[in-house]
Specification:
Number of domains: 1
Order of helices and strands: EEEEEHEEEEEEHE
Radius of gyration: 17 Å
CATH topology: Porin
Strand order of the largest sheet: 1-2-3-4-5-6-7-8-9-10-11-12
CATH superfamily: monomeric porin ompg
Largest sheet: 12 strands, antiparallel, barrel
Oligomer: single chain
Strand content: over 45%
CATH class: Mainly Beta
Length: 276
């Protein structure tokens, strides 16, 4: 199997979502304030294909390599208007390493919340992913051409529950003069991503979330769509600091994910969000 999990992108949405989820929310950072998201994730492949590690392509982080990855995604966001934020993101890969820069998935994004009241919000988030080097593309760290995408976001709020919906399209171009990741198979460049994430307020300090999604499978020789399921906890250490942890499984369908049988991939993530 050329790919086990799913892609985003994000898509050029590597500018992370509602950390530590894949799904973004319609909220924006208040005007004049800042937000830093610093996380660490590790990926792994499982099942009958784990003897020959398949590509692990996770939403929000385009990685096409033939081995497990360990990386530190970082995003800085600034509120530039009451309903508009700008963000800059990038990922430092601790593994795999090679004769290439470990910094990849450099993304510039803007989120505009164009409609809202106290119970719901609608936002749109266009983004551009800057090109990497051909050596990074060969190693599976991003793509060696500029990419772009747009995410339509809807959020609905109740007292103890909120739910978010994403519908995203991205154009994931790559330099066809070079191998992509561990294989030579042509990849689809029109990527669709759909997800939903209910979030429960358990206490004033703890929120739990379930994130479910469906995305285009990049390798053109494989089935068109893949699924993922993610569980997460967000702990508010203070009014300005959240600690997040999540675990995701992705596979050809939800049956494989739920039964934990067959070829699948996982991503474990932990980090913090600081607002100032």
């Amino acid at each position: 199997m050329r790919s086990i999990a799913l892609l985003l992108l994000l898509i050029p949405l590597a500018c992370k979502a509602f950390e530590p989820l894949n799904t973004d929310d319609a909220g924006t950072v208040p005007k004049g304030l800042n937000q830093i998201e610093q996380y660490f994730f590790t990926t792994a492949s499982h099942g009958s294909g784990s003897a020959n590690p398949a590509d692990v392509i996770t939403p929000g982080e385009e990685y096409f390599g033939g081995q497990d990855a360990r990386a530190f995604p970082f995003t800085y966001t600034r509120g530039v208007a009451d309903n508009i934020e700008l963000s800059l993101g990038g990922t430092y890969f601790a593994a795999p390493r090679g004769r290439f820069s470990p910094v990849s998935n450099k993304v510039i994004a803007m989120k505009w919340r164009f409609a809202e009241n106290d119970r719901w919000g609608l936002a749109v988030k266009p983004s551009i992913t800057l090109p990497g080097s051909p050596q990074q593309q060969v190693a599976g760290l991003g793509l060696a051409l500029p990419n772009y995408g747009v995410n339509l976001i809807a959020s609905r709020y109740w007292d103890v529950v909120e739910i978010h919906f994403n519908g995203m399209y991205s154009k994931s171009l790559y330099n066809t003069n070079y191998r992509l990741g561990a294989g030579t198979v042509e990849n689809r460049t029109n990527i669709w991503f759909f997800s939903t994430a209910p979030v429960w307020k358990v206490t004033d300090k703890v929120r739990l979330a379930l994130d479910l999604g469906l995305t285009t499978n990049p390798p053109s020789t494989e089935q068109y769509l893949r699924n993922y399921a993610l569980v997460a906890a967000i702990i508010s250490a203070s009014d300005s600091l959240d600690i997040g942890i999540s675990y995701m499984k992705s596979a050809a369908n939800m049956g494989v994910i739920m039964s934990n049988s067959g070829i699948n991939a996982s991503r474990s993530e932990i980090g913090f969000t600081w607002r100032f």
